[in-house]
Amino acid sequence: MSNISWHPQSEPNPLPFSPFKASTVPRPIGWLSSVDGQGRENIAPYSQWQNLTFDPPMVMFSANQYPDGRRKDTVLNAEETGWFVWNMATYDLREEVNKSAQVLDYGESEWDRLSVTKEYADNHRIPMVKESPVKFECQYKTTLRVPGNSKVGTIDLVVADVKTIHIDESVIDEDGKLDILKIKPIARMGYFDYTVVTERFEMRVPGSDDAARAGLEGSA
Fold it and tell me: Which residues form the Flavin reductase like domain (predicted)?
């Protein structure tokens, strides 16, 4: 078996499409809603989104600048108001997630183009997607600006604390766990591709003690 190898920081990509984002998969989607200081509403998906730790629960997302150097509305809104909301992106909501990715002028609202129901967060008046089964209300903590080789390659890495969690009771199974196969969350792949969770399997670390098992399983 032969390999293709190259140095991406100094050599051109030998393939017709970059394999980088297609290799770091699947990536959970940060479907993030926010408002600016005037209360104008925004929602957009981010594929560079992840939890950071669980004690206390913290999350992060990374937002590339636009080619002209403008920063993303979600970043500006989080910095201005101190809050944003994560809405779980599911297969049933896939078309709405995709529509919310459209680039609009600053202050225009993607919500006007979506066929979803709004409900509002407890900590700050930010709209949430009622049909989304899990929502996190996130309090802004800090931004790390990381320069890239271009304006679009430059990122804002935003860190936030999760202050309130909302879960639709219909997606909690008899053991008190999220029924992921019922929820069917979607995730970003490479190119124009997405995937959906329709299968799962369990593995337990050999020799782990009670404390380690409790941590891995998320026991309260």
Answer: 22-180
